């Protein structure tokens, strides 16, 4: 046991967050703490850290455990360079190093005057082992690796912390924690201020972390990759599950089915006995039996299964944007530079109606700059931006919320963009974005940064433009709200350009990927999985070319290798049989070829299945749209037409990919 949370209770006024909440974290466990927004996840972390206190219950740590805590918000006003700020956080490691030096000196002095005490040697061994295990000898090297993994360019290592924005300061706080290497890490939304590549690095870091981890996160792909337990806040208690987030969802649904069945059986039994009680309670000959049944009813009611609160599933149909021309936005010969940095030079990019584009690449490569130029928020240094016919642009970023009026309530802000909606419709939308009950009557001026961001996003989707430009829209949303947003964006018939660290969202929404790195822009016409496949394929090809371009081996080993090949080729084959050496070489060649072809074949299988599904649906829609009944229902016809146009664009892309994959496999097989 490294942490034990035992029967915690916590209330704020009439609202109870926890009642008898308990769970235990053991060394090496990687826990996700999940629950709907407002369930008390952050409050529980603060109780564990002693920042807040429970009404009843206790928090127990293992002896001498070292705990690190990352809050959702942090602010560093320090003028200390980033690398020094991170290294200065390793207080325990530095103290161990100093103690090791003291002990070395004491051992040397004791050795000069006589025998060295065993206790001195034992303590030195313990201190030295701990110092080494925490990376004391590689402190600066580890600090640099962590900062690079979190997306800091090397040139930024020496900049003062105060110069960085809030998102980057969160990364500095993460780096400080990771370098300390605490026995227990508590992380509250660690991916919120990271890009996709930094999130992938963080996954690997957490997966290989030697200590225990407790994470609050709304990123499903992240939790699936690096947690092995889930602590779910349900009905003010905590239920633990073994496995990652997807496993938790399945187990939870299985448990829920059993609980529903038991609850239904209990209610049927109560109803059956209540009929008897109502009929015979005042009849003398049956009064005793009626009394027995009344007692049994009360007993069952006291044991009645309490079903956990269901996940919110908000299916909200957002209005379609104004229909634009085929060409939505175009950048021609665009360059962008700042005082001391050239970001882009002579790039071309055209977006079409129905494109759902995700911008990927390392932090600082220029993703946000490109998004701002497409949105018209920033002008290119050279080149031109052109919008298509009937194209309006909506731009969302958490630091661009000037469109909100401070004196308005949340409900008034929504009403300003959706005056024809009923109040229940407006409240339903706001509920999806985590504004419920009295929250809708709050003034904008008193909202937190996260609340303002959610309100701005809700306003945008109430009356969307033909071109949506979204920079990290899922920050400050819980999983249910992300589901709602994901569904809205996936079915959005206009054009979308997205930057997001949420891999699940990116996988669901994107049909084009723009990779930005090293001042270059590469456009991949396909979804995120195809982009990952292409990156891996190109990397493998480059590696193979480097291997094949190496000169023939020299020296003794080279002579032996050449001689083996020569002997194998000269060895006579009797009765058509191959030598053992030939069979071994052929088997190795086949294994290498299969390994090389596996990602291609796996992708081809997925493409074939997707192509078959989309063609079948395309044929269905063709038949459906020929019916007069559909024409009479304008809303259904528009939905069908939108889906038909989407398939019309998607099928040729998949067919091209299928042809390319098939050709590559044939060529590789012929060469192999």
TrEMBL record:
Segments of this protein annotated with the region Disordered: 544-586
One annotated GO molecular function: nucleic acid binding
Top-level lineage group: Bacteria
InterPro entries per the UniProt record, alphabetical: AAA+_ATPase (IPR003593), ABC_tran_Xtn (IPR032781), ABC_transporter-like_ATP-bd (IPR003439), ABC_transporter-like_CS (IPR017871), ABCF_ATPase (IPR051309), P-loop_NTPase (IPR027417)
Coiled-coil segments on the chain, per record: 590-624
Every ABC transporter domain range: 3-260, 329-543
Feature: compositional bias, Basic and acidic residues: 567-586
Pfam families given in the database record: ABC_tran (PF00005), ABC_tran_Xtn (PF12848)
Record key words, sorted: ATP-binding, Coiled coil, Nucleotide-binding, Repeat
Protein name: ABC-F family ATP-binding cassette domain-containing protein
Species lineage: Bacteria, Bacillati, Actinomycetota, Coriobacteriia, Coriobacteriales
